[in-house]
Write a structure and sequence with these properties.
It is a single chain. The protein is an alpha/beta fold. It is built from 36 helices and 13 strands. Strands 4-3-7-2-8-1-9-10-11 form a nine-stranded mixed β-sheet, with helices on both faces. Strands 5-6 form a two-stranded antiparallel sheet. The longest helix has about 80 residues. The N and C termini lie far apart (about 145 Å).
């Protein structure tokens, strides 16, 4: 082998030197050094790699030492962002030199700016996306929970009824446009899908009008299942077309008339995009596409077209979404729209995290984890490999719903003991508050109802008495006043002259005036004591509020702990079903109150405290948000690290490619051929990934076991309490139906699916596949490292400039390990995704095989049709719908698995060939530089051009180095401490007793006296 195929042109030779930074090398080659680095930051010289390349990874790793995971991710992403800016700048510079240096096109292609190079650096730098789905029964509070996670009330929610009917995807809106902060994309269902739903409605209408046919001795009874389906579909049509509100309104309306309506024409087969700058307006607008209710903020909604909507995708600038989290609100199950059911299933395949949501009342009474996830959903997650603590979160909502604290404490002995003192304190405070309220009421009542009116009456009486006393006084003092005597003398003389009756009246008036002063003082003192008592009451009420909060929170915490324990137990039982051992990984169970979190968000502390929550942390929402953000860390760090590796490859190649050729360091032709031969001898293919058979040998016996289990299951379908009309309705709906009023769900297809028990073998097989990843990673790393070591050793007996040229490639070539590992990860991920489709095809095969039987039994009428339908089921499960069907399923699984696993080595080999080609190109680039045949004049001309190019690129690289070395600092969060008030005042009892002296004084002035 005399050459390594490559499309690069000769570039010149490299000089042998000690390890330096790129900035220093550019300076040596004649380019200015743009910036010096701050002394407090890590210097590049101390962490430069031995290959003479500036290592972003080394700098970032140094900065990450001792940091938390969150800070480490932030540092890596910061470095990645600056690297992105660097490549953008380099791309623009390279484009200016395409004419003078044709090989710049290759360098631009490596950056991958253009669409034509999807495998290159920029194309691989995709944003992180962690899709989080919220599953749960209708009314579980999913929409309210998502609103609190977002920090905005975007999704419609209702306390009275379930509101979300459509899958809603919420992602980050990267466009910072003030006029379009909120964006909605609404995709309508197809005309074909809606037509099928309408045809079912008209068929049900006909069956309902024909009435019961009295089957096999059964009493004639109305088919309530048909009626329920009619009501569900009619509720949708009435939303769309106001003049169709009852089944009778369909008499003069055809399916084509409905499809031709303005609302159907505007939605079916269409995608509507709407932008808005205001959250309130946006929420009102999307409500009609999502919400099943007709009310909107207490008013009738402007429109409601949700029955025609397939999926709604929202984009907004919420912080929780900024780093790649995508929230998906999946509506409650049992939708009659096949389109929406399919959308929900597709989302479940893509979910990285599934949040199973249930209200606390239901979680407390049901079998927790087992019932929160239905059998089919749990099985699907198990087969998808998502039944683990990384992918499955349980969220218990409405934990503020605790009606009777005292009863809850009595029912739990542990709380009775631990909270006994707290309960006593609460009861004591209640008694004190009751007494204070009584005292305050008594004091205010005494003043308002008795003393103030009595005082006013006394004043009025004094006003009447004063003329009498004044007349007496004037008559007594007239003689003495004319003699110009002193007032004291006049009073003394007059008093001595007065009769006993006159003296009583004069002295009585004085006493009455003193009584007025006493009463005024008593009223004032009473009011003052009432004010103090009110202050004490407020203090006691605050103490009671705090005490009650502590009791409520203790009950909530206790209930949370019990539910978490029960959920964990159910989760581990699910692991046993999969044949897996007990997992020590912490299961994410979050108990939350969206209501209390919303109260605290708007500052309503008192109401929140009365529900048992003193801080947002206690509502559980911040912890759930933090758990979701934490789930993105590994993906974000890997994305940033991989992109940094790509950028470092670009830096290495551009540095080597742009270096000047040295006419004094050129290989002879014989040296070039000798080195080519040596390199070819060490370029060997990597070992292919070996795949295990796993589940395949067991498939045949599993099919036989499934057929036996399915036969028993089919025989149980028509048994009581399933009546003949229900049996026929389930057949008519192809094996899946929700009972009237939602009390029971029938899913015969899932029954047949569960009979094919592949769970343990399935997970074991894919676990074997996954176990090959470390083996593959180790293999490719050893291969590349051995190759690089052998490559460098090739130059030991050659001139120094050849040895140095080979050594410069070391770090560049070692980075291909990351690319190969990522390729292996992607291949196994593709295999897992294929596996999701394979096991889902089982149910599709079952439905396809049983559809004709379902339809035949669903259309059967007349005497004896119930028994005939049962016999059809029995015959089918013993033949084509039983053993034959399951063996067909087994054969399909085997073929699909063999095809999927066969693609993995091919994909790995393809990835290796791409890397192999890159390595050859790097080697040829190095060889061409060391063996250029250009003349001295041509070398000088190219050297000038390359010097200009290096001078243009140098500032970009210097900025990158400075930015990466700068590092990042996390923000600190403020904390607040509550304050307490302490006062102690009492209000006196019996302030205003009856005054006998007052009555005696007033009697003096009666007419009879």
């Amino acid at each position: 082998m005399t050459s390594i195929p490559c499309k690069t042109e000769p570039l010149g030779s490299a000089q042998r030197s000690s390890p330096t930074t790129v900035t220093q090398r550019l300076s040596i080659q004649g380019c200015p050094v743009v910036a010096n680095f701050p002394s407090q930051k890590p210097t590049l010289d101390t962490i430069a790699t031995e290959s003479n390349h500036f290592s972003i990874t080394a700098v970032a790793s140094k900065l990450c030492e001792g940091k938390s995971t969150a800070d480490r991710v932030q540092t890596m992403e910061g470095a990645s962002a600056h690297a992105h800016i660097y490549l953008e700048g380099v791309k623009d510079i390279l484009k200016r030199y395409e004419k003078d240096i044709p090989s710049t096109k290759i360098r631009i292609a490596e950056i991958g700016i253009d669409v034509g190079f999807p495998e290159k650096a920029f194309a691989r730098h995709k944003p992180c996306q962690v899709m989080v789905g919220f599953l749960g029964t209708s009314g579980a509070g999913k929409s309210s929970l998502i609103n609190e996670i977002l920090g905005e009330k975007i999704l419609p929610h209702s306390e009275e009824q379930a509101s979300t009917a459509v899958a809603v995807e919420i992602s980050y809106h990267s466009l910072d446009d003030p006029e379009s902060q909120y964006r909605a994309s609404i995709e309508g269902i197809s005309t074909t899908e809606f037509r099928e739903e309408l045809e079912q409605l008209y068929e049900d209408k006909l069956l309902w009008e024909e009435g019961p046919d009295g089957e096999d001795g059964e009493d004639d009874e109305e088919d309530l299942e048909v009626l329920q389906r009619i009501e569900v579909t009619m509720s949708k049509i009435s939303c769309l077309i106001p003049h169709i509100q009852t089944i009778r309104d369909l008499e003069n309306t055809s399916i084509d008339d409905i499809l031709a309506s303005e609302v159907c024409q505007s939605m079916l087969d269409r995608v509507t995009v709407w932008k808005c700058h205001d959250a309130v307006l946006f929420a009102r607008y999307i409500k009609g596409y999502i919400d099943t209710s007709m009310s909107q903020d207490g008013e009738i909604a402007e429109f409601s077209v949700w029955p025609l909507v397939k999926v709604v995708k929202l984009q907004l600038r919420s912080n929780i979404l900024k780093n790649g989290i995508v929230l998906v609100d999946l509506p409650g199950s049992h939708d009659t729209s096949a389109a929406r059911v399919k959308v929900a299933d597709e989302y479940q395949k893509k979910l990285a995290v599934t949040c199973v949501v249930a209200p606390t009342t239901r979680a407390a009474s049901d079998k927790i984890a087992h019932d929160l996830l239905s059998n089919d959903k749990r099985r699907t997650m198990q087969l998808d490999g998502k039944y683990n603590s990384d992918s499955l979160y349980f969220v218990i909502t409405k934990i503020d719903d605790l009606i009777d604290v005292s009863s809850y404490i009595r029912d739990h002995p542990n709380l009775r003991k631990s909270l006994s003192e707290e309960v006593s304190e609460r009861d004591k405070l209640k008694q004190e508050i009751k007494k204070l309220r009584g005292d305050i009421s008594k004091g205010r009542a005494a003043n308002v109802k008795k003393n103030i009116p009595a005082l006013q009456s006394l004043r009025n009486r004094i006003k009447d008495i004063e003329p009498q006393v004044e007349e007496i006084w004037n008559s007594l003092t007239k003689y003495y006043q004319q003699r110009k005597r002193s007032l004291d003398d006049i009073e003394t003389a007059a008093t001595s002259k007065a009769t006993s009756a006159e003296k009583k009246k004069i002295q009585g008036l004085r006493a009455l005036r003193e009584k007025v002063l006493e009463r005024e003082k008593l009223i004032h003192d009473t009011e003052h004591q009432v004010l103090h008592a009110e202050e004490e009451l407020r203090q006691r009420q605050g103490d009671l509020q705090d005490c009650t909060y502590r009791l409520i929170w203790a009950c909530i915490s206790n209930r949370n702990d019990l539910q978490i324990e029960a959920i964990k137990k159910g989760y581990h039982n699910g692991l046993k079903e999969m044949g897996e051992e007990h997992s020590d990984a912490a299961l994410n169970v979050h108990c939350v109150s969206a209501y209390a979190h919303g109260l605290l968000h708007i500052g309503d502390q008192d109401t929140a405290l009365s529900k048992g929550f003193s801080s947002q942390e206690e509502t559980g929402i911040p912890a759930l948000k933090e758990a979701l953000i934490t789930r993105t860390w590994s993906d974000r760090e890997k994305i940033a690290s991989d992109f940094i590796s790509d950028v470092e490859n670009c830096i290495s190649r551009i540095t080597m490619w742009s270096a000047d050729a040295d006419s004094n360091a050129q290989m002879a032709k014989e040296q070039r051929e000798q080195l080519n031969t040596r390199i070819a001898s060490i370029l060997e293919d990597l070992d292919q990934l070996s795949m295990v058979n796993g589940i395949i040998p067991r498939l045949s016996s599993m099919a036989d076991e499934a057929a036996q289990a399915a036969e028993k299951k089919v025989r149980s379908w028509p048994q009581m309490p399933t009546r003949w009309n229900t049996f026929r309705a389930i057949n008519r709906l192809r094996g899946t139906m929700r009972g009237s009023r939602g009390k029971k769900t029938y899913n015969w297809n899932e029954d047949l699916n569960l009979c094919f028990d592949i769970l343990k073998d399935w997970r074991r097989t894919f676990a074997n596949f996954e176990s090959q990843q470390p083996v593959y990673d180790k293999t490719v790393q050893e291969c590349i490292e051995q190759f690089v070591e052998a490559l460098i050793n090739l130059g030991d007996d050659m001139p120094a400039f050849i040895h140095d040229g080979l050594f410069m490639l070391k770090e560049t070539l070692l980075r291909y390990v990351i690319i190969l590992k990522n390729n292996g990860t992607a291949s196994l991920k593709k295999l897992n995704n294929t596996g999701k489709d394979i096991h889902r095809n089982i149910k599709e095969t079952i439905v396809k095989e049983w559809t004709l039987i379902y339809l035949e039994c669903g259309q059967a009428q007349g005497i004896g049709h119930f028994k005939k339908s049962q016999e059809l089921h029995r015959q089918h499960i013993e033949g084509k719908g039983g053993p034959q069907m399951y063996h067909t399923i087994a054969a399909n699984i085997e073929q699909s698995l063999r095809t999927a696993t066969a693609k993995v080595p091919y994909k790995l080999q393809k990835g290796y060939k791409e890397v192999n080609s890159q390595i050859r190109e790097d080697l040829n680039l190095m060889l061409e530089r060391l063996s250029s045949q250009e003349t001295t004049a041509e070398l000088k001309r190219r050297a000038v051009i390359r010097a200009e190019l290096r001078a243009s690129i140098a500032p970009n690289l210097a900025v990158l180095e400075n930015a990466v070395c700068a590092g990042f600092k996390p923000e600190e969060q403020p904390h607040e401490d509550p304050e307490a008030i302490n006062t102690d005042t009492r209000i006196a009892d019996d302030l205003f007793d009856e005054d006998p002296d007052l009555a005696a004084l007033l009697s003096i002035y009666d007419d009879k006296n």
